[in-house]
Design goal:
Number of helices: 10
Largest sheet: 8 strands, mixed
Strand content: 15-25%
Helix content: 25-40%
Radius of gyration: 19 Å
Distance between the termini: 32 Å
CATH architecture: 4-Layer Sandwich
Strand order of the largest sheet: 2-1-14-13-11-12-9-7
Number of strands: 15
CATH superfamily: CNF1/YfiH-like putative cysteine hydrolases
CATH topology: CNF1/YfiH-like putative cysteine hydrolases
Number of domains: 1
Shape: globular
Structural class: alpha/beta
CATH class: Alpha Beta
Order of helices and strands: EHEHEEEEEEEEEEHHHEHHHHEHE
Length: 330
Amino acid sequence: MTTIYGLEKHSSACSLPEFFFQNFKCNYLQANINEVENFAKNGKGVFFFQKNSCDFPVFMSVHSPLENAYIIENVHGNDVVPVSFFHQKADGHYVALSKLAQSPPLPCSLAIKTADCLPVLMFYEDSDYFFGAIVHAGWRGLSSQIISRAIFLLAEKAGFKGISQEVFLSGLNIVLAPAIFGTSYECGIDVFDAIQKHIQVLFSLSKNRERSSVSYELKQKISELFSIASDVSCDRYLKEKIQFNSSFYGWRLQSGSCFPDLQLLAFCECVLAGLPEQNFRLVRFDTYTNSFLPSYRASSHGSKQTVSREQRLWTHLSVPWSSCSEQEKS
């Protein structure tokens, strides 16, 4: 069962298509208002998600990353690199850590900065190892398979430690952090074409992948959801939401536009890769319409005065056992 974490009391406020709720089991949780208010006031916050009866924290900050965070410089590509103290140009970084290493714990996290693009956090943990990655997925990175690259890179590292791909994928947790909603994200035909090519590649890879755990029925559902996620204006309710956003925030709808939803596209890609639905957490906040989250597009439109155009959202994947510099990173 996918957990959706939103700002409003009702799931209808999270701008997801009716098809999603009809075909995928969801557990909708309203955000803790104290957490949200603290984040809006201080520019820093932590949001907790249940993981095997334990709280898993996702740390977010505006202005700057948290202390002891490893950072990279986004270039809108699909490179995923080992965590490093050095300033690397990439759109994802990862750790593969042994808990057996005799090293004193040290606060550590992997950070990504965004201002509408999607941060994707993924982690697998057992009694001996922790494998984690965080990637920056705008439409360019997403359509060049950065999410799948990160998933199967971690799966390969886990395989070197004797963890089968089937076991790894069944235990890999995904958090889809705040990004611009499809109902706020008007794009041109070039974006739509890139996403369609991306979807074709993903289904081709899934077909050729050995021991795929994805059933034919589930692939049919994912195919339909991919179609909707590529342009959410095909959903009647979401089309009305797009028209409202356009009128309320003062941007003119263009003919031939598409409205892709990055979180939904990422969800489809991960499920098609073999991840169970219950492994997902969607932090369903729209960066465009929420006043406390940075949005490059909203700032460009002049519709968001509380956050400057230069500000970015930093999302952090916390590592439970570190010194990342001393333990295994590749």
